[in-house]
What we know:
The structure is a homodimer. Chain A is mainly alpha-helical.
Amino acid sequence: MPAKKDSKYKPGKIRGENVDTIIDAAEVEFATYGYRGATMMRIAERAQLPRPNIHYYFANKQALYSAILERILERWNESFDSISVTDDPAEALSRYIHAKVMLSKTHPLSSKIFATEIIQGAPHLDEYLSNQHKLWVQQHADVIRSWVDQQKMDPVDPLKLIFLIWSSTQHYADFDYQILSVLERKAYGDDYFDSVASDLSHIILKGCGLTPPH
Amino acid sequence: MPAKKDSKYKPGKIRGENVDTIIDAAEVEFATYGYRGATMMRIAERAQLPRPNIHYYFANKQALYSAILERILERWNESFDSISVTDDPAEALSRYIHAKVMLSKTHPLSSKIFATEIIQGAPHLDEYLSNQHKLWVQQHADVIRSWVDQQKMDPVDPLKLIFLIWSSTQHYADFDYQILSVLERKAYGDDYFDSVASDLSHIILKGCGLTPPH
DNA sequence: ATATTACTTGACACAGGAGTCAATTTTTCA
DNA sequence: TGAAAAATTGACTCCTGTGTCAAGTAATAT
């Protein structure tokens, strides 16, 4: 186990850099092969480090994977200011959709790792799903329900609306290969995600009886 | 290589049964661990057959996986009657959404395997994506475009509408663990998928300026 | 009944991958 | 500059998983 506690020596500039390099390499690997399919060997190659060096920073594959999941969940939490009962639904939903689409743009690997994890039964996210995550959903569903009660929008099922937003926005990160194949492109264009956000907002908001802001 | 050509002996009742058992077992395994993470050993255990027996029917892991992908694509193709320019958009889209939701209900494992395959870069579906699949999408996008041109619906981007329908419907198969965790259930209720189909239809059709049929 | 083919299965060889360790080099700071 | 901690890395062990093979048993057709 590498140093982490009190020591009169610098805990690490090198450490920080290497940890980042390793995590970046591992994200690609885990997104491409899933947890079981990923190998420490390929992660080491991608990071351009000898394999034992990876084990110097992360005791084992599981620890490395956990570190990555943690980083993903942190980002998720940071990225979303909560919505509230007094918000304008059109405004709030539109912003949320935009934020989710931008996450797909900026962190597609995170989205893929998370998606794979869920598809495969969330073996490493059980606890998160049934605690933090469930709470988040319930709170936000409550807000949507209150908007419905205030007749600010059509009587849609709040959970299904949340699932609709998640699925349609994450799709552009998770299924990028399929989409790019259809588009006959190698990569998304510069402002493709902007158009996705605005098109999705249009359909979803209008579908809920709301008028997209400005 | 097992017999397949002319032989005066029965090619196999036993064969048929075993192949089915193996494929069923393998679907669970591939959906749960992805191609690389899956092991022939666990597939054999699930199928309750000795491992070499699996190799008697499928030369190797790749062959078994290919057989499964093929079966999935066949089902996909069977399940969808094409839509056409003269169809009523509301009718046609609503039917398509319903059909896709029902595929999520009846074949969640197929959906997960397909999703994982795409997320990981479609290494085994390259050819399908850039041929058959691309054609299908282009044809259907053309129909939607013609509906737009005929002013039968709002001027939505046909591709983004197709992606929206795919993502929102497949989500209930692929992300079942997440959804069930939020719903605090062990499995979907009997008519949950019906409500999904109708709620999604409502939002998406209305979002495109259409009125849901009946 | 028997020859022929289909199917079964234990035992093996081999490769890939995880994790360890000890010896060494580099960095740090007093 | 030198002692201590951090970081690197080659070499090793052990395990899991794939695919093969040969010797067997069961099914089938004449």
